Here is the input.
Amino acid sequence: VDNKEVKTNPLHVEVIKADLKNRKFLLEMKISKNEVMQFEAIKLEFIFKRDITQDVVDLRFLPPKFDNFWVKEGKKQKPYQENNFIVHKMTYFIYPQKSGNFELNPARVDVGLASQQRDIFGLLRRQLNWKSVFSNPLKITVKPLVGAKLYGHFDIETKVDKKKIKANEAVNFEVKIKGNGNFDDIDEFDLKIDGANIYKDKPIVKTTPLEDKIKGEFSQKFSINSDKDFTIPPLKLTYYDRDLKRVVTKKTKAVNIVVKGG
Here is the structure.
């Protein structure tokens, strides 16, 4: 200003360690382990405790940003009482899509507390005051997975509705994968059969949260027709087996289809 540099006065803020014993609200973020492999499921828990003496009207949960992770909600849990606290637990399963070192920022719960206040006429009014509670951050080290992009345990099978058909009649063929792991990373299958017309549906993936893992099922259907005998080739599935701790490839059997009058 007028060729002179003008500055504000400094403001000093002192941060002291929180007294966890006497806090009315607590939010903790926990993971099953800090070092994992790429695509491995990580169980992530959010534990929120609130003092039973507090008049809580509303709760709003804001999880951290999950950049570079696939996210699945875990099994629902009902709140329960523990000493003088009501405990809320929320479970997620996160799947790292990249290797490296990552940090999950603190989660947040906004607590709506009821309070009685007098208005300008001296009348008591019930109002809602909001308080934000933050969790701890978490660090995760993800090691690269070589030779596969699926982690867990999977079984693959195929079936056809018939093995003998008339010329240009369709065979319905289906592939199913069951087990536990990162089902959303399974690629759809392609079939190549000389002289056959192949129509395929988009895969359907269904997952169910269990206590410590996500159970899943992948299914994809095909319709195949031809005017001569043909063979549906074997399908392969490669994954890192979490129990065997190595890359495993499972393969289905070829299916021979006889075409009458072809």
Remarks:
- The CA atoms of residues 27 and 135 lie 5 Å apart.
- The longest strand covers residues 214-226.
- DSSP finds no helices and 21 strands in the chain.
- The radius of gyration is 28 Å.
